[in-house]
Design goal:
Elements: H1 2-22, E1 27-28, E2 36-38, E3 41-43, E4 50-51, E5 70-75, E6 78-87, E7 90-92, H2 95-98, E8 108-111
Keywords: Disulfide bond, Hydrolase, Protease, Serine protease, Signal
Signal peptide: 1-20
GO molecular function, one term: serine-type endopeptidase activity
Amino acid sequence: MKKVIILVVLGLFCENAVQANDNEASRVEATVQSDVLIGDINVNGKTKGVEQSGRIINGVPVSIEIYKFAVSLRVDNRYYCGGSIISVSHVLSAGHCVYPFLTNVSRVSIMCVTLLIT
């Protein structure tokens, strides 16, 4: 029974991924709760046709001020994965992001970005 449930859930995920890839070039209209700065567009309630990437569905870009805990895991100074700050000296990320570099951790760095307005 567990195998059947797992197969059904896996099938649903695969179907969603295929549909997202089919609509990769499509444009969507996303509703937001308040004024948000999205790239160069000042949004007042709705975005003007945000493009789907095929991986994040109905996502809306936001300012770094809202998500101060987000970091970029970089390999050879290029973006590789994302992570979250969980303490002063720890970042949480997916295991598949760091496993290939267990023997050569010097290639991995973490970049934190902040906005400082004076």
